[in-house]
Design goal:
The complex is a heterodimer of chains A (about 220) and B (about 425).
Chain A lengths: L3 H19 L5 H36 L5 H20 L10 H32 L5 H16 L2 H6 L9 H36 L12
Chain B lengths: L1 H18 L11 E2 L18 E7 L8 E6 L11 E10 L5 E6 L5 E4 L8 E9 L4 E3 L18 H22 L10 H16 L3 E6 L6 H20 L3 E5 L2 H17 L11 E3 L4 H15 L3 E7 L3 H11 L3 E6 L5 H7 L2 E4 L1 H11 L2 H34 L2 H13 L4
Parallel strand pairs in B: 9-10, 9-12, 10-11, 12-13, 13-14
Antiparallel strand pairs in B: 1-2, 2-3, 3-6, 4-5, 4-7, 7-8
Classes of the chains: A mainly alpha (about 220), B alpha/beta (about 425).
């Protein structure tokens, strides 16, 4: 029963989701919203599982004096500070001028932005590796990237200003993005859509069960 | 089973073909409003009224919408137009009229939503001049919204889904009967064994990242199904797995999956809940934590499978910097180039969904992959026909080709 009930719920939900796309009649037209609401409710309760797990692991780290236990202490302090302030400030805790919003604007946002900013350096290092002309395909990639990057900045058209307009770099770049790039991406999208259908059918029919714990 | 499939297919095709004639929904009452202006309502008139006001049922809904259309006032011109706004009034049953919408000049249609199919509705559209003088059309006849059981506008999609779904089920059945199926080698999945073996030899953990979306995303579900196969092997090799997640539900599902994999492998005592830990729902907070784990614990193998966004390259480059063998996979085309640049192996789109079936090697799971090929064949034929139709239709204005183009547009319209 431990496996059969989840399989049954999955099958019923999957079939209903397919049907509601083709049946506008009540109650099918409401089922999508119902299931999404139910999922949100389950998710809202489950967040406590996650929070408690985070606290448990962090406390354990401090108790056992594991390496880098100091970071666990930062997690616990941050968790309680933000939670207590959020509750203390009541419903308007997100309004400008509250301590919660100050913490959000001046602590959380800069930290998030810092992590995001690292991406710029990683793009440079990854591009350096990817654009090495080791073989024919890599050379094509290098050339395409060269034309697209140069075509997206004004200097590209200045360099190729002597050519007819349709051969200038901005036009070449937009041709690459509109035709070969879009064609490749659409091919991938078609594959993904078919993969989705196949995976969904495997899960709905109960052929794929490894997400319930592997094996048959 | 075979008989059932054939019968279902036959019935569906029969219903589909016959639907337009046998089950077609009769057009709901269409009433053309009187185009004469009600002189009682046009004191101080400065604009002409709207004409040909029509109200009809919105097709294929749950009886909650009505469509209105009209010919705009002749004074509604682009240059020197005298109409400032159109006001749509509704009369529910026999109540007084209520204003339900104000539309800009040039408007000639409106869909009234959230109606009750048990009520009757009448409408008036007023052309309003700059001096706020209203000129009303006469009231339409009472109309009730109709509800329909099947959205025949999506009939072709239904047929297409039926063909592809039927092909998947057919090949699953063929595989069950013992038919040999050829599945091409997927380098990223061939490397799974090697990647787990490497971590075992080096005595370092395996890091498994299932993306940052919840269990309602099919990519996360695919990542968890692959985890089931990978965890079984990890348990066999007695290697350590570390799985920080960004969603509580993913944590519980992953724990259950790994636990069962360890039990199936005969090592239940080796399993610990600490293998899977929740970090945070916040995107970059999660990235910071995972990067920290990578740098501190230096896993030998990193799996990045699931739905990724801006964090994909940050995670993959950090993994690359610590020298881990990385197997990535996502169905988000925008993130694929990052994974290809920074990881050793990348499962591109459909390969992510094929992974679990491929790793299991079970005939019935592999059969579903073969069924996808029918879909690909249809896609290839349609693309080819579409390209020819559009090219010839546009170049030489051939009616037949334009009809083919229109037909394909109708078939693949998702409205």
């Amino acid at each position: 029963m431990r496996r059969e009930i989840p399989l049954l719920i999955t099958a019923i939900t999957g079939i209903v989701f397919v049907l509601q796309y083709f049946i506008p009649h009540a109650p099918f037209n409401k089922m999508n919203t119902w299931f999404s609401d139910w999922f949100s409710i389950v998710g809202a309760f489950a967040i406590w599982l996650g929070a408690l797990n985070l606290l448990k692991i962090s406390f354990q780290k401090i108790m056992d004096k594991k390496s880098d236990w100091f970071f666990a202490l930062v997690i616990i302090i941050s968790f309680f500070v933000i939670t207590i302030i959020g509750f203390a400030e009541g419903q308007g805790f997100r309004e400008p001028g509250t301590t919660f919003s100050w913490l959000y604007d001046y602590v959380y946002s800069p930290l998030s932005a810092t992590m995001f900013a690292i991406l710029a350096f990683f793009v440079a290092s990854a591009s350096y590796r990817a654009f090495r002309a080791r073989n024919f395909e890599a050379t094509l990639l290098l050339l395409s990237a060269f034309f697209v990057m140069l075509g997206r900045v004004p200097v590209g058209d200045i360099i190729t200003g002597f050519l007819p307009q349709q051969y200038q770099l901005s036009q070449v770049a937009s041709w690459i993005m509109t035709f070969p790039q879009t064609a490749g991406q659409r091919a991938i999208m078609i594959g993904i859509a078919l993969g989705l259908v196949s995976t969904s059918l495997r899960i709905i029919l109960g052929i794929e069960r490894s997400h319930l714990g592997g094996g048959d | 089973m075979r008989l059932l499939i054939h019968t279902t297919l036959f019935l569906s095709v029969f219903i589909f073909i016959g639907s337009s004639r046998i089950f077609s929904v009769e057009p709901s009452p269409q009433v053309q409003a009187d185009t004469l202006v009600n002189t009682a309502d046009t004191v101080g008139v400065s604009v002409a009224p709207v004409t040909s006001l029509l109200v009809d049922d919105y097709k294929y809904d749950n009886g909650e919408q009505l469509n209105l259309s009209w010919v705009p006032s002749i004074d509604d011109q682009l240059i020197d137009g005298k109409v400032s706004v159109y006001r749509v009034y509704r009369i529910t049953n026999d109540s007084t009229r209520e204003l339900i919408a104000e539309l800009p000049p040039g408007s000639n249609s409106f869909t009234d939503k959230n109606l009750n199919r048990h009520d009757t509705y009448r409408y008036i559209v007023a052309a309003v001049s700059a001096s706020d003088d209203e000129v009303l059309s006469t009231t339409t006849e009472p109309v009730q919204p109709q509800r329909e059981w099947i959205n025949f506008r999506r009939g072709y999609l239904f047929l297409l889904a039926l063909i592809i779904g039927g092909a998947v089920i057919y090949y699953i059945q063929s595989a069950r009967r013992g038919k040999k199926l050829f599945v091409r080698k997927i380098a990223g999945l061939e490397a799974v064994d090697e990647a787990i073996g490497r971590a075992t030899e080096m005595g370092r953990p395996i890091l498994y990242i299932p993306g940052i979306l919840d269990m309602d995303d099919v990519q996360t579900l695919a990542a968890i199904t692959i985890l089931g196969r990978v965890a079984h092997q990890i348990a066999d090799y007695d290697t350590k797995i570390r799985m920080p997640v960004s969603r509580s539900l993913v944590m519980t599902a992953a724990r259950e999956t790994i636990k069962t994999a360890y039990q199936t492998a005969g090592r239940p005592d080796q399993y610990s809940d600490d293998m899977v830990s929740y970090v945070t729902d916040e995107q970059f907070g999660y990235v910071a934590a995972v990067d920290g784990i990578m740098v501190r614990e230096k896993p030998a193998t990193v799996f990045l499978l699931g739905a990724f966004f801006a964090e994909s390259l940050i995670l993959a480059e950090t993994g690359n910097s610590i020298g881990a063998i990385q197997i990535a996979g996502t169905a988000r085309p925008a993130q694929l180039p990052f994974f290809i640049a920074a990881c050793d192996f990348t499962l591109i789109g459909e390969e992510l969904f094929a992974a679990s079936a491929y790793l299991s090697g079970e005939p019935k799971a592999l059969g579903s992959l073969k069924g996808q090929d029918v879909g690909k064949a249809i896609a290839m034929i349609v693309i080819l026909v579409g390209v020819i139709a559009v090219t010839i239709g546009n170049a030489w204005d051939v009616k037949f080709m334009n009809d083919v183009k229109d037909m394909l547009t109708t078939i693949f319209s998702t409205q």
